[in-house]
Amino acid sequence: MSDSKDSNDSEIRRGDFARKKGEVVLREHEYDGIQEFDQKLPNWWLFTFYGAVVWFVGYWVLYYYTDNYRTDQERIVAKVTEVKERREEALAATLSSLSDQVLIEEWATDPNIVASGEATYSQICIACHGAELDAKMSGVPLPGRPLNDGEWTYGKAPMAIFKMINEGTPPGEPGYNGVPMVAKGGGSLGPKDVAELTAFIIAKNPQDFEGATFDESGALVVE
Ligand code: HEC
Fold it and tell me: Are 51 and 32 contacting, i.e. CB atoms less than 8 angstroms apart?
């Protein structure tokens, strides 16, 4: 037994690195009594290893620098974001082209827009301006001004009404019976909601806007 062990040991060269295939070298260093063998790695192992390195680099480039390897979720999120951005751009374009003429001739004549405006009105504005826009509830006056009396304290032009709803009573104005209106009636409304509310109010006051004339910028000409 001890003989064969000795003869095995004697076949193993001591040195730094194995130089040819199949050669086993017992390396010269020894740390805490631990010694290392060295031999050439088999080619199948090396090919697998280098292959993995090459595959990693290729995959990394394809994954991060092309669109082909995104997950379904990333693709969907990107699509949804794109649709949302396009919708916001369309809305911004609509609002930037808003004018008295557009509000009277297009928004206030569109039943869907007016219905949306009415829905918002019934949630927020009704409390102070009443279901009939007369600022009364069962004959009792509410805090707001009537919105059906043909009087437009801050201007009858739809863009002025828009501004009034959006920003509330202008700073420094006393309000109505000492009560100012807060911006958006205290609701959290976007520009589209405010435009719809304006359309609803216009539609409820046809007598005030019939036969309206506009200048070339679309602003109401007030006689
Ligand atoms: C908390 C009560 C309150 C709510 C809610 C409220 N308002 Fe008013 N509103 C007022 C008051 C008070 C005034 C008068 C302000 C003034 O004269 O400065 C007013 C004035 C107005 C005017 C100007 C009327 C005019 O004669 O020129 C408009 C338009 C108007 N409100 C629209 C709305 C709309 C639309 C909403 C819903 C988003 C709304 N208000 C919600 C209290 C309210």
Answer: no
